[in-house]
Write a structure and sequence with these properties.
- By secondary structure, the protein is an alpha/beta fold.
- 22% of the residues lie in helices and 26% in strands.
- It folds into two domains: 200 residues, Vaccinia Virus protein VP39 (Rossmann fold); 36 residues, no CATH class.
- It has seven helices and 14 strands.
- The strands form three sheets. It has a nine-stranded mixed sheet with strand order 11-9-10-8-2-12-13-1-14, sandwiched between helices. Strands 4-6-5 form a three-stranded antiparallel sheet, with no helix packed on it. A two-stranded antiparallel ribbon has the order 3-7.
- A hairpin with a 5-residue loop joins strand 5 and strand 6.
- Helix 2 packs parallel to helix 3 and helix 5 packs across helix 6.
- The two termini are 21 Å apart.
- Bound molecules: S-adenosylmethionine.
- The site of S-adenosylmethionine has 19 residues, from strand 13.
Length: 292
C-alpha cells in the first residue's frame, strides 16, 4: 500500500482499515507559537563587472532571489486536546505487535508522555529516543536546545519488532580502547541518536519547514518494521517517512492537510507511484494539490 492523503487527519484516519500498519510515526507541530516557514535565498552569479545585488569572494557579484517557503500554523491553546484524540483514533490502524513513535521537543513532550501513558499504558512505553543535532543559533543565557524526543510505545511489550541486525554501526568515541577489530566494525547507537539536520543545500532538502532527516527515519523504520510492512504518518509534511519507507521496501500511508505539503510529497514520491487521495489534478496531469 502506497498512499498520500490530502486532508484533515482526524477525518482521514476514520477512512483507513484496521490493523494495516506495523509502525505509526508522527511528527506533529511542536506548538512553537509561530507560523512555521523556511524562506530561502538563491544566489546566482552575475557575469557583468558591476551588476548583482551582493558581493562575494574574489570580487564576484551575485543576484539574490528570495524564495518564500510553504507555511503552516503552529500554535495551540490546548495542544494535548488537539493531539491526543488523533493518536487515539490512529491506534486501531496498528497491528497487534505494532509500535507507535511520537516525535516532539521540550515544549510539549512531558505533557504528552503522561497523556500517552494514560491512553496506552505505562507498561507499553519502551524507549525515549533523543535525536541530537548541532545546528543554528546559540543563546548565551541558557544551554542551547539542540535535541528532539521520540517516544516509543509497543502495543504488546512482549512481542514487537526490533531487528537488532538491521541497526547501522557508528564509530566508537575512543576506538583505541576497544581494539582494531571492534573499532573497524563500529558500535550500535544508544537511545541518543546524533544526526545532522537536513543540510540547507543538497538533494534531500525539499524546502518544506521542519523537514526531518531521512537518516533518522531510515534507521527507525529498518529496525522497527520488516520489508513489505506498511508505515502510517498522519502529520506527514514533506513525506520523509514515505521516502524512508519506500527506499527500504515498506509501504506508506501519509496524511497532511496542507496542500503545499501534499504537492511536495506527490513530487518527492512520484517514482514509487503512490495513490493520491483528496487531490485534484491541475492542468496536464501535474500534481499541484488543491483541497479536494
Ligand atoms: C512538523 S510537520 C511534519 C514534518 C515531516 N515530518 C517532514 O519531515 O517533512 C507537521 C505537519 O502536520 C501537518 N498538520 C497539522 N495539523 C494537521 C491536521 N489536523 N491534519 C493533517 N495534517 C496536519 C502540518 O501541515 C505539517 O505539515
Amino acid at each position: 500500500m502506497k498512499k498520500i492523503i490530502l486532508g484533515e487527519n482526524l477525518e482521514a484516519l476514520a477512512s483507513l482499515p484496521d490493523a494495516f500498519a506495523s509502525v505509526i510515526y508522527v511528527d506533529p507541530p511542536f506548538n512553537t507559537g509561530k507560523v512555521q516557514k523556511r524562506d530561502r535565498i538563491k544566489a546566482t552569479r552575475t557575469t557583468g563587472e558591476d551588476g548583482g545585488d551582493r558581493g562575494g569572494f574574489g570580487g564576484r557579484r551575485y543576484d539574490v532571489e528570495h524564495i518564500a517557503s510553504s507555511t503552516y500554523a503552529d500554535s495551540y491553546d490546548d495542544f494535548e486536546a488537539f493531539l491526543m484524540p488523533r493518536i487515539e483514533a490512529s491506534l486501531r490502524c496498528l497491528t497487534e505487535n505494532g509500535s507507535l513513535f511520537v516525535h516532539l521537543d521540550y515544549r510539549e513532550v512531558h505533557y504528552i508522555k503522561v497523556a500517552l501513558d494514560r491512553l496506552i499504558g505505562r507498561d507499553r512505553f519502551v524507549n525515549e529516543i533523543i535525536w541530537a543535532y548541532d545546528y543554528g543559533g546559540r543563546p548565551k543565557n541558557r544551554w542551547p536546545a539542540k535535541h528532539d524526543t521520540i517516544l516509543w510505545y509497543a502495543l504488546d511489550p512482549d512481542d514487537y519488532v526490533f531487528d537488532y541486525d538491521a541497526i547501522d554501526r557508528i564509530p566508537y568515541m575512543a576506538p583505541g580502547l576497544v581494539g582494531a577489530e571492534k573499532a573497524a566494525i563500529g558500535k550500535t547507537p544508544t537511545d541518543v541518536w546524533w544526526h545532522t539536520v537536513v543540510p540547507t543545500s543538497g538533494k534531500e532538502k525539499t524546502g518544506y519547514p521542519t523537514q526531518k532527516p531521512l537518516g533518522v527515519l531510515s534507521r527507525l523504520l529498518k529496525v522497527h518494521s520488516r520489508a513489505g510492512d506498511v508505515v502510517l504518518d498522519f502529520f506527514a509534511g514533506s513525506g520523509t517517512t514515505g521516502e524512508a519507507a519506500a527506499r527500504n521496501d515498506r509501504g506508506f500511508v501519509l496524511i497532511d492537510r496542507n496542500p503545499d505539503a501534499a504537492a511536495i510529497m506527490a513530487k518527492r514520491l512520484a517514482s514509487f507511484e503512490p495513490e493520491l487521495v483528496g487531490f485534484t489534478r491541475a492542468g496536464d496531469g501535474d500534481t499541484a494539490a488543491t483541497a479536494g
